[in-house]
């Protein structure tokens, strides 16, 4: 209730403020163009969805180290981190495989996207992005499975015809983790063809956390010792600087190529090739775990994480009876990831390796008939998963078999879907939206060997289907006002990770396969307002309520009549993913923009999310992945050659009573009371020192606060000085 009162107060005083301001301003309208809502360009003011955009200019000025930090900088996306090379976005309380990542029209989510925390967004090179669109709320009509919390659509730069030879480069250094990043891209545009290529290399050292702690938690986050191998023995080494998070550094390389061939005005061919790879990525949170006063693990890291994508896209804009515009996208992805771990004082190092091949086909079309705008399309996907594992004795180099993360006989998923949407616009004031999608899915996993786990089944098969839809209404009585209501549904089909994984989630708790798992569904109700007051102040607000039915949750389970099993030398409780509960998520988002002059502007946003599981016997318990209240405050000054920003990111308290103790909230990495509230003070500038040369300077976390994002197993960087030099070639 207090948030509704607060919102009403803002709405009440903003008209007064705008009337009292005499500064001149150009006419400002709600006319941004977005693509993510329906695969083709649309005016944001006509859409009932909440959509946020990050432009290439914003990406360059904010100068984040990676794509996860880029999203975090908006204040609209919450990001969890388990290690320095981590970053798991959360949209409206949904995370990991319950949000959809898309790049250039190709879905990144694959058959082993897990339900805990994911760092796959880091495989996107933000230096090569033209813009990023964040579509909040269930979006399954256009995008299909996984889009429960929304869609993050990354759009890479496109080479321009007739542009000649151009290039850009930058180098960056950050003090908090001794980051060293270099980037270069070159493009050439001819009459009918163009090319753009880019390369980025980043080396990130160990993250130094802030030194200024709350008096109640004077040692929170300190790393007093860390594991090390010396003279063939595991030892716990005393950390000379407990604020240095030893074992959090990693490196990354990104390659990018895009070719355009446009033989005629109405036809364009695009070939897109992307490759990203890392060095070893230490799992910092696991390396800080202690058992009997000693490190639990001597080693725990992700091996090189590799993402290869190649796609062909055909754009057709010559109107005919079937479409005004159409787009065909065919893509292939090759993903490799591995987990390497070894217990402290144990010579056997386990390696689990996953290789995933993904084939996708999308056809999308648009046809305008009178006041109606129809969009329709088809999507087909196929995933092939191969999982292997072995142990290596670090003393003798002897190799032996080990339990795989996924069924060792191989796993496949497939899907085919059709969708149709319609937008009816009346006098450019009323915009009615409706859409429907039907999806057929299939999954097959084979347990080729039962050497390590005597499962009571040889394979797992599923062939579910799902029907989803949406209906929305937008009222725009003037260019400065927009009111919208929306009902939308979403679904997520269990993937290989949900259905057939064997995984130790926490010490003493083992997740095993459950063949009886079925899809989970969401039903979302949403209202929104966007209003300019005069030409100075803009308010955007949205409130939503999402019901979750047949929610997939991890709970106690029995296997062969047993509730416990020995795993890696530990008697572990058996758990499994199950459709056990119904839940709900409700929240509110408020954004305020104040244009004080042509050079000075102020922005603020706040997000409040609440999620509860409905218990069978009545009452509720906290739903996991729900962030505390969070947001951003910013003041920006800009002229022709200079830009400066002072901003603050903030999080409210997440009390331990609001944690889901059996889920993915990671209470073991918080204080006994939960995760404390925090706020940072930051400043950055960009100066054009020459026509083709600019210098960027920043100081992040000026007050050197020690803090962690909720559910994170690593503390955020302390005071961080950033220097960047950018050049146009």
UniProtKB/TrEMBL annotation:
The keyword Transmembrane applies. It comes from the Bacteria. Pfam families: Plug, TonB_dep_Rec_b-barrel. GO terms for biological process: siderophore transmembrane transport. InterPro entries: Beta-barrel_TonB, Beta-barrel_TonB_sf, Plug_dom, Plug_dom_sf, TonB-dep_rcpt-like. Residues 44-151 form the TonB-dependent receptor plug domain. It is found in: Cell outer membrane. Its main location: membrane. Keywords: Cell outer membrane, Membrane, Receptor, Signal, TonB box, Transmembrane, Transmembrane beta strand, Transport. The keyword Membrane applies. It is a multi-pass membrane protein. GO terms for cellular component: cell outer membrane. Residues 264-702 form the TonB-dependent receptor-like beta-barrel domain. One of its GO terms (molecular function) is siderophore uptake transmembrane transporter activity. Belongs to the TonB-dependent receptor family. This is TonB-dependent receptor. It comes from Runella slithyformis (strain ATCC 29530 / DSM 19594 / LMG 11500 / NCIMB 11436 / LSU 4).
